[in-house]
Amino acid sequence: MIAKRPFLLSTVAAALCVASGMARADALQDIAKNGVVRVGVFMDYPPFGALGPDLKAQGYDIDLANLLAKELKVKPELVQITGDNRIPMLTSKKVDVLVSVGKSPEREKVIDFAQAYAPYYLAVFAGKGTAIKSSADLAGKTLAVARGTLEDTTISKEAPASATIRRFDEPNGAISAFVSGQAQALVVGNDVGATIMVKHPKLSMEQKYQLFSSPSHLAVNKGETALKNRLDEFLAKIKADGSLNALSVKWLKAPLPKDL
């Protein structure tokens, strides 16, 4: 047993060295070394990410990933993610950066967040000729909403008693009711609202006012401080030069909120 202890100790020491080396791994340096930044993006989440008519990825997040790669002077590699696998994809180091992540105390225990880069919020949408500036203006109007969603619970608390809230089992039902004129206003996320504007330009639809807000962030693995700081610098730069606002106008059909 005594003869084997040096081997055992050396094995443990080697394992500790490997673990220490892993702990010191720097994702930003790896990105520069590999010449590629792997960005986890949704491909079924328009207008943030989707396949266009030419089957090429397009959207707010796609344009942002390309801007980031240009800033880092590397090539972008778009990695398709889902709501369920995105954080495991990051923590298992299959991607370097995640997009469209809402910040929460639970997630902050697992991953680190850069600045917010895109607005995500619930809003009331209606035609340009419909006078709505606040919840008080919903009095006497018919609203369409998906039953049991955050949109439903939020507008149910805010709408005046004289407002008629038509609830549908699926979001598409609420959208169809609004598009067909069965409701004067629609309560959906800003991303859905922007998509409807593009698909139905004759509606002359516009965002009336904002409800619940939970902006989208870029996220990196826990402890990747250098990469997080570099992302913050990048976002500050494209906010200052107007590039990020241009993405918002292009894809979300509205300028960036002043408090983003």
From TrEMBL:
UniProt subcellular location: Cell envelope
Domain of life: Bacteria
Keywords tagged on the record: Signal
A Pfam family matched in the record: SBP_bac_3
Residue ranges annotated for the Solute-binding protein family 3/N-terminal domain, each copy included: 36-255
SMART domains tied to this protein: PBPb (SM00062)
InterPro entries membership: SBP_3_CS, Solute-binding_3/MltF_N
Signal sequence interval, chain numbering: 1-25
Gene Ontology CC annotations of this record: cell envelope
Gene3D superfamilies linked: Periplasmic binding protein-like II (3.40.190.10)
Membership in a protein family: Belongs to the bacterial solute-binding protein 3 family.
Name listed for the protein in its UniProt record: Transporter substrate-binding domain-containing protein
